[in-house]
Design goal:
469 residues; single chain; 19 strands; globular; alpha/beta; 21% strand
Length: 469
């Protein structure tokens, strides 16, 4: 007798999901008439469903129980701050205690013949053991829908041709974006991947051959592709006519990226592997709109874990309001920093807006009382015409125990002229950071072995060598 178990789309109510998480024109129709109070009611309903699911899972039973929390303590979203934060460290602790995939997902109590199909990925593992990422059918589809919602909200044209520079393999990125585009838009999708999967020279030829008009991926690599196109004799904006770049802009210079590609419209969005897409820039280009029907976002002080005021920088702590099947996520500390923008939502949506990714609180270097976020150093250098966009920071400690930072910068100037520029760069960074840092100027491509911009989706921006690293 053949085994019986549910198929992917039998595992949840797909039609209900489309109604509950609208996209396209339905997004504005649905939410522009919703008040903040009505949104809160919706969030509370979804939150309580997610909490009920979490209480069934040993991971949350253990963490919440250790904090003295009982089910009776959480009666509404107003009680959220009673719950302890979780982070990647807790997930990896779960994996270590219950190898190979931990006990945070909630599958162990479901008989095998009743388990829904799963989507399984891992993080890149560049800093240690890869973290398992498990998605149930409902959670996976809402995540994919939210990416497509973002693209369509930005103004993605019907029947566009999208080239994706997100990686594949075991990591989530490229697969997740492909599912979003092919299921929830009518675009042609080219899954080129990174420069390792499809050589950069081949990528730009693909763009020309198939008339790609939208580029998606991490902007460091997208910016590099413009140089490759020129090397291949192709002029961005003429031979390759891109009208949208949808990337992770953070604090990067938009002007330099747009200029490199013939001035297409640029859009930012934010999410992490565990949570999916959390916020996206809209056609108003007024910050990123948080998808608050799907996520409850807190901004907390990195030191005290207390809420910060509007306009102050804090860690993004995310509760996914839709993940009530596999791996509920409640108060997940991303350690990514942003700030909430003041003022009303000009599009009439009830959602808060955030500035975007502003660095990581766990990748911060404190020098003489000043917090330095390496991700933010690049934009400080953009006013210099010879800056080529590539940089890396080294944190070092001398024999006396004094910490220093060295900023290595790629410039177009020939070696003979670089000594004259050093003082200019040091003064610029001292003015913008607040303390003096050392600077080393190098030629184009010299930092690639350190930043790994040619093989990584997210280039390395900090080498912390203070502790023997």
């Amino acid at each position: 007798m053949q085994a019986s178990y549910p198929t992917y789309f039998e595992s949840f109510d797909y039609r209900a999901m489309l109604d509950e998480y609208p996209l396209g024109p339905a997004l504005l129709t649905h939410f522009q008439q919703m008040s903040a109070e009505e949104l809160r009611v919706l969030q509370n309903q979804r939150f309580m469903k997610v909490v009920a699911r979490a209480w069934q899972i040993p991971f949350y039973q253990r963490i919440w129980g250790s904090a003295g929390i009982t089910p009776a303590d959480i009666q509404s979203l107003d009680d959220l701050q009673k719950l302890p934060l979780i982070s990647k460290a807790d997930i990896m602790d779960s994996v270590e205690k219950f190898p190979p995939i931990g006990d945070f997902h909630g599958l162990d109590s479901i008989p095998k013949e009743q388990r829904p199909p799963l989507v399984f990925h891992t993080t890149s593992g560049t800093t240690g053991t890869p973290q398992p990422l498990l998605f149930g059918p409902k959670g996976r589809e809402v995540q994919s829908l939210l990416v497509a919602r973002s693209y369509r909200f930005m103004g993605l044209k019907p029947a566009a041709t999208i080239q994706s520079c997100y990686g594949h393999g075991m990591i989530n990125g490229g697969h997740y974006i492909r599912e979003a585009v092919t299921r929830y838009t009518n675009a042609i999708f080219l899954s080129a991947g990174t420069g390792v999967e499809t050589r950069s020279a081949q990528q730009v030829q693909l763009m020309k051959t198939f008339g790609v008009n939208v580029l998606v991926g991490f902007v460091d690599y997208i910016k590099r592709l413009a140089d490759v196109a020129m090397d291949e004799g192709l002029v961005p904006g003429k031979d390759i006519k891109i009208d949208m770049i949808i990337g992770h802009l953070g604090m990067e210079s938009r002007d330099s990226i747009a200029k490199a590609w013939g001035n297409p419209e640029l859009f930012d969005w934010y999410g992490v592997g565990d949570t999916g897409c959390i916020a996206a820039e809209g056609p108003d280009h007024d910050g990123m709109h948080v998808w608050e029907d799907a996520h409850f976002l807190e901004l907390l002080d990195p030191d005290t874990n207390q809420p910060v005021a509007v306009g102050e920088r804090g860690n993004m702590v995310v509760t996914c309001l839709y993940k009530d099947d596999v791996y509920p996520i409640i108060r997940f500390n991303t350690h990514d920093l942003t700030e909430q923008l003041p003022g009303e939502n000009k599009l009439g949506l009830p959602f808060k807006r955030i500035r975007g990714f502003m660095g990581r609180s766990d990748n911060m270097v404190k020098l003489r009382g000043i917090n330095i976020y390496p991700q933010g150093v690049g934009p400080m250098l953009d006013e210099r015409p010879e800056f080529l966009g590539e940089f890396i920071c080294k944190a070092v400690r001398d024999d006396t125990g004094r910490d220093e930072m060295i900023v290595l910068v790629e410039v177009s100037s020939p070696p003979a002229q670089r000594s004259e520029l050093l003082e200019i760069y040091q003064s610029l960074l001292k003015r913008k950071i607040g303390i003096e840092v050392q600077v080393e100027l190098v030629g184009e491509g010299e930092l690639t072995p350190l930043t790994q911009v040619d093989v990584r989706q997210k280039p390395i921006r900090l080498l912390d060598q203070r502790f023997g690293g």
